[in-house]
Specification:
Elements: H1 13-27, H2 33-48, H3 57-73, H4 81-95, H5 103-121, E1 131-132, E2 135-143, E3 153-166, E4 175-178, H6 186-206, E5 214-220, H7 233-247, E6 252-257, E7 260-262, H8 277-288, E8 294-298, H9 302-315, E9 322-326, E10 339-343, H10 346-356, H11 358-379, H12 381-384, E11 390-394, E12 397-401, E13 407-410, H13 418-423, H14 427-431, E14 432-435, E15 444-448, E16 460-464, E17 469-474, E18 492-500, E19 509-516, E20 522-527, E21 533-539, E22 543-549, E23 558-565, E24 572-578, E25 603-607, E26 622-628, E27 634-639, E28 648-653, E29 659-664, H15 666-678, H16 686-693, E30 698-700, E31 705-706, H17 713-721
Parallel strand pairs: 4-5, 7-8, 8-9
Antiparallel strand pairs: 1-6, 2-3, 3-5, 6-10, 11-12, 12-13, 14-15, 15-16, 16-17, 18-19, 19-20, 20-21, 22-23, 23-24, 24-25, 25-30, 26-27, 27-28, 28-29, 30-31
Helix pairs in contact: 1-2, 2-3, 2-4, 4-5, 6-7, 8-9, 10-11
């Protein structure tokens, strides 16, 4: 503890006031906290040792807030234990004054005392060693007083940094800057830095290291710090030399241990210049009262530095500080206590060699890459393509292939009966479709799986883009109201599927047709790509064939469904034509769902039973095929023999479903001529007979069947209302 010795000369009020004014100017300047603390402590300690304290109370009141803020908000101090003791003494004396007796002031004094004691206890706490590539601690000196008659010096340690990068090829000179100085001082420091850059570059060239032009920015951490000396020279040379190694990706580079403090101006040869004795003492004390473990100094100062260090260690024997003498900046890189050498990693070496031999490397790499791409595309790209474009039925499973013929995945196992449908000229395209149903760029497989064992499989549409099924749509069971033969919990078996836009959203929907196990009913419906039901039409008979055709080549497709109608008053072959956006209701004279919704089919056409059909045991004929002709007419084939593909009639319609002509196949002609020869029914010749059938074709007009071409009134009304 520092006590009032009474030996100081008494201060006059004028001299005290002048010192106070200079102190306030310093406190409000950009000087470091340590410098401000030392000067404030010096002034207050001097006042506290004077007699007649009453006349100094105003100074204590004015300076107490400054002292509090400096200690509380200050960063790292490089102060000796004597200074800490002096500050603790000042804090205690001020706390005893009645002007500071309030609880708030006493709390602040207590807080300051804790901070000072903690800082003093941690005075020699060692700095943890880290490895840095672009930063070095430098010990500096700052004047402690503006009064040249009582000049003191204050030391501090600042981190010195270098930010560097290679300039573009068209830049032919280095760009060097130093951020921490006034313009009035810039000329000397700029010249000094230019000499250091030249020194480091020449050293690299002598070691056969490529050198380019660089952007170089040197700076201390505190941007407000004003610097005019050159003791950063050894640090600047080391940082610059190492940055060239890094920027040029040389075989190795260095990292600096941050528990070492540097100081020393260098000459043009890189040699460290001897420090003035007073400067050496101040810098050594600063490093000694810090946590740094090693101090790099000019080799010429080692004897006096050791002597000074020995004196300090007599007072503080627990403090260990290693002095490392260096005569040239190159010696830093040969000392493992200061730096650690790192060899470039493989990818860094590769880049370094590329920069040197890039023309040869680029040519060789281009050839290798070209050959690799040929090999890759020929052998591997085909395996990356996961989009199926074809399929085949193999071992009771659909097997999907991409455009390169690579097998992608398999469907679930199908029942054996599906092989018959797959091999049929009509069945495969109606029971399995490969298409991008959800517009994700990958084709999905839509398929049916008829089963005589598992009935539910026959009621489902399966959608899959891998071995996992996206969704299986199952036709729901219904109670159907047919007066002569009601159906309870109907099981509909899917007969076929196709694709068409049924809701006008520009995306394909899934059209399906299904039939009951008995002779009726039949169902034509549609679901969207998520499996949601969007349309259905019930026919009192089976739909056998469904075609999607564009009659006018205008992109507007229509649905043509051929089959039969089992109603007692009809019982004949039928052709049903749908506008895909209006699929609803049921066939004429029926309302199986009891909802009162009439059928919205565009055309419903009945075909008469021929004289040959009357010779069979069948109850009704069927439309079993529909074709679009090259002249944009439609031909419907009706089965008139005992078998579906036996004797047939061909009804040709134009695009407005006007009946153009009726013809027959050779089987029909042959059997008709036999009947004609036997003259059992007093038949006309074949052409006359076929012409007579035209008068027996009927069109549904919405309320009744008529003998002239007519659209369904329910369709035309809903079509007109939707415009």
């Amino acid at each position: 503890m520092i006590k009032n010795s009474g030996e100081r000369m008494p201060l006059g009020l004028f001299e005290t006031e002048m010192q106070f004014i200079r102190l306030l100017k310093l406190i409000n300047s950009t000087a470091t906290t340590g410098r401000k603390l030392i000067n404030t402590a010096k002034f207050l300690n001097n006042l506290l040792e004077q007699v007649g304290q009453e006349k100094y109370i105003s100074y204590y009141i004015d300076l107490q807030p400054y002292l509090y803020n400096l200690i509380k908000n200050g960063q790292k101090f490089y102060l000796s234990p004597e200074i800490y003791d002096k500050l603790i003494f000042i804090n205690k004396k001020l706390s005893e004054l009645k002007q500071f007796s309030s609880e708030s002031f006493q709390s602040k004094f207590s807080e300051i005392e804790d901070i000072l004691k903690e800082s003093e206890e941690n005075l020699f706490k060692p700095v943890e060693c880290e490895l840095l590539t672009n930063s070095i601690p430098i010990v500096l000196i700052e004047r402690c007083s503006n009064d040249t008659s009582n000049d003191e010096e204050y030391g501090l340690i600042q981190r010195f940094n270098l930010s560097s990068s290679v300039r573009s090829k068209n830049e032919k000179v280095n760009k060097v800057e130093f951020r921490n100085y006034h313009d009035s001082e810039s000329t000397g420091i700029n010249k000094y830095l230019d000499d250091i850059v030249t020194l480091a570059e020449d050293d690299c060239k002598n070691n056969k290291i490529d050198v380019h032009c660089y952007n170089l920015s040197f700076f201390f951490d505190s941007q407000e710090f004003i610097y005019s000396g050159k003791s950063f020279g050894v640090g600047a040379a080391c940082l610059l030399y190492n940055s060239i190694l890094i920027n040029e990706l040389y075989r190795y580079y260095y990292k600096f241990k941050n528990d070492c403090v540097f100081t020393g101006e260098i000459d043009r040869e890189g040699n460290l210049i001897k420090l003035n004795r007073n400067i050496l003492q101040t810098k050594l004390k600063t490093v000694f009262f810090s946590g740094y473990k090693k101090f790099i100094i000019p080799e010429d100062n080692i004897i006096e530095a050791k002597a000074e260090l020995a004196e300090l260690q007599k007072k503080f024997p627990e403090r260990k500080l290693e002095l490392i003498p260096i005569n040239n900046f190159r010696g830093v890189f040969r000392n493992s206590d200061i730096v650690e050498r790192f060899v470039l990693k493989f990818h860094q070496k590769l880049k370094a060699n590329y920069d040197k031999y890039h023309k040869i490397f680029n040519t060789l790499l281009s050839v290798i890459l070209f050959l690799f791409l040929i090999f890759f595309f020929k052998n591997f790209v085909k395996y990356l393509d996961r989009n199926p474009v074809s399929y085949n039925l193999e071992d009771s499973k659909y097997v999907l292939y991409n455009k390169h013929g690579v097998k992608l995945w398999k469907s679930e196992e199908l029942e054996i009966i599906n092989k018959m449908y797959f091999e049929s000229p009509y069945g495969s395209s109606n029971r399995c479709i490969l298409t991008d149903i959800n517009s994700d760029g990958i084709n999905e497989l839509l398929y049916l799986n008829k089963s005589d064992i598992d009935i539910e499989k026959s009621q489902k549409i399966f959608c899959s883009n891998s071995e996992i099924i996206n969704f299986p749509y199952k036709i729901p069971q219904r109670n159907l109201n047919y007066p002569n033969d009601p159906v309870t919990n109907s099981f509909m078996y899917l007969r076929g599927i196709s694709l068409i836009d049924c809701d006008g959203d520009g995306k394909n929907d899934i059209l399906y047709w299904a039939l009951h196990t008995q002779t009726y009913p039949g169902l034509i419906g549609a679901i969207d790509y998520n499996g949601k039901e969007i349309a259905e039409f019930w026919n009192e008979g089976h739909p056998i064939i469904v075609r999607i055709l564009d009659l006018n080549n205008d992109g507007k497709q229509k649905i043509f469904a051929g089959g039969c109608n089992n109603r007692d008053s009809i019982e004949c072959a039928v052709l049903i034509v749908f506008d895909p956006e209006y699929i609803s209701g049921s066939s004429p004279f029926s309302d199986p769902l009891s909802n009162g919704i009439p059928g919205k089919e565009e055309y419903y056409i009945l075909f008469p039973k021929s004289v040959l059909f009357e010779q069979t045991t069948r109850e009704r004929n069927d439309v079993y095929d529909i074709n679009l002709n090259s002249n944009n007419t439609i031909t419907c084939w009706t089965s008139e023999g005992q078998g579906v593909n036996d004797e047939s009639l061909m009804y040709e319609f134009d695009k407005d479903m006007n009946l153009v002509s009726i013809s027959c196949d050779d089987k029909f002609k042959h059997k008709y001529n036999i009947l004609l020869q036997n003259n059992k029914k007093n038949l006309p010749d074949l052409n006359a007979y076929l012409e007579s059938l035209k008068n027996k074709v009927r069109w549904w007009d919405g309320t009744k069947f008529v003998a002239s071409p007519s659209k369904n009134r329910s369709y035309t009304e809903v079509k007109e209302n939707s415009k």
